[in-house]
Design brief:
alpha+beta, Deoxyuridine 5'-Triphosphate Nucleotidohydrolase, Chain A, 2 domains, 7 helices, about 45% helix
């Protein structure tokens, strides 16, 4: 069991030098050497066959146990010896690759794959970042296609999304490569459809970077992560926000002080007006009470005087008829004065209304007495003496 492939050490099957000769010989011979292999994703044994026959990738290793570069339908690519990055001055610089590749935190770098590619015109290639790097915070564009007929190096952009440097050793896998055999029948180039394969070889990945950074108008722009600049801008905005917040707190404190002062002033004014209001209210009540008392006393005096006069009419007949007539005329005049006084007091306050109610009561009494006098006048017209001395009481204002 010790000689099983899984237990064998890794072996170099095709070196880069040997691959150049193999690929050159194949392009001269041209046709697919394994037409019996179907048009599909190549499995491990078919990958090995085409590597040996066409030199599609190099160096090519087999075996190695659990670290074998060849899987059932893919081959492992590792980091090469050249990497690039853009500095803060927008210059493209070489990133040292010593004992592995260290990608700075929150940055984008470009690294070449350790493999050389010499694809025949009927095999296409795709590659993806190994999932362990994805889980650790590394990012790569998904599934880039390498066209059939491509010769050169692969330029792999890597974005470190984490806030820590990320190191990939030389002996650790970076990408997985998948090979697909196309349905091309290798017709003469003048009869093929679609864009023809590139005639140029790409062994310097800086050419890809320069092409990528050049806009359609010819302007060259750096390719960097936006995270540091966003963090910087966020820091500036945070600082400005903190400053604004401090100013807002100062303004708020000042506004509160002004509000407290205004509140204190309002409270003092309120207390002052309350005191004035109470005194004024008491004064108003006192004035109305005085009006009412004066009016009431006057009316009572008037009523008593009138009662006395009436009693003199219905009493002994010693009083002359002429005096009774004069008294009747005075009663009527005074009754008219009472009616005018009633009209003048109708628009007063609630207390005055109460006075009017009492006035109405007195008016009724007076009208009753007046009716009695009129009755007596009919019975004894010559015996009613004048009452010139009787006056209506005045109300203090």
């Amino acid at each position: 069991m010790s000689d099983e492939p899984a237990a064998r050490k890794e072996e170099l099957i095709l070196s880069c030098e040997a691959a150049v000769e193999t690929a050159t010989l194949f392009t001269k011979s041209g046709p697919d050497p394994r037409k019996n292999i179907p048009y599909s994703l190549l499995s491990s044994e078919h990958i090995e066959e085409y590597v040996k026959l066409t030199g599609i990738i190099s160096p090519f290793y087999l075996y190695g146990g659990k670290k074998s570069r060849l899987k059932h339908a893919a081959y492992e690519g590792r980091i090469g010896k050249t990497a690039y990055y853009f500095d803060d001055n927008d210059n493209l610089n070489t990133l040292p690759v010593i004992n592995g590749l260290t990608i700075p935190a929150e940055s984008i770098i470009f690294v070449e794959c350790d493999l050389e590619f010499r694809l025949p015109e009927f095999i296409a290639l795709r590659f993806n970042l190994q999932i362990k790097h994805v889980h650790r915070g590394l990012l790569l564009g998904t599934g880039p296609l390498v066209d059939p007929g491509y010769w050169g190096k692969l330029c792999i952009p890597l974005h470190n999304l984490t806030d820590q440097p990320y190191t990939i050793p030389f002996d650790e896998g970076l990408i997985w490569l998948e090979f697909t055999k196309t349905t091309s029948d290798l017709q003469p180039k003048d009869k093929r459809k679609g864009r023809p394969p590139l005639d140029k070889e790409f062994w310097d990945i800086s050419e890809f970077i320069d092409k990528a950074r050049t806009l359609s108008n010819g302007e060259k722009v750096p390719i960097r992560s936006s995270i540091p600049s966003m963090v910087g801008e966020s820091g500036k905005h945070s600082t400005a926000a903190l400053k604004s917040a401090g100013q807002a707190r100062e303004l708020s404190a000042e506004a509160k002080s002004i509000a407290d002062e205004a509140k204190t002033t309002a409270e003092k004014a309120k207390n002052r007006f309350s005191q004035i209001g109470i005194v004024g209210g008491l004064a108003t009540i006192g004035t109305l009470a005085a009006v009412w008392v004066t009016f009431f006393i006057g009316m009572m005096s008037y009523y008593n005087a009138l009662s006395t006069r009436i009693d003199s009419i219905v009493g002994p007949s010693s009083t002359s008829h002429n005096d009774q007539g004069i008294q009747l005329i005075g009663i009527e005049a005074n009754a008219q004065k009472l009616i005018a006084l009633k009209k003048n007091t109708e628009s007063s306050s609630d207390i005055i209304k109460q006075v009017l109610i009492e006035n109405e009561k007195l008016k009724i009494i007076l009208e009753q007495q007046s009716a009695q006098i009129q009755l007596l006048e009919k019975q004894q017209p010559e015996a009613v003496p004048p009452l010139n001395s009787l006056e209506l009481p005045t109300v203090a204002k």
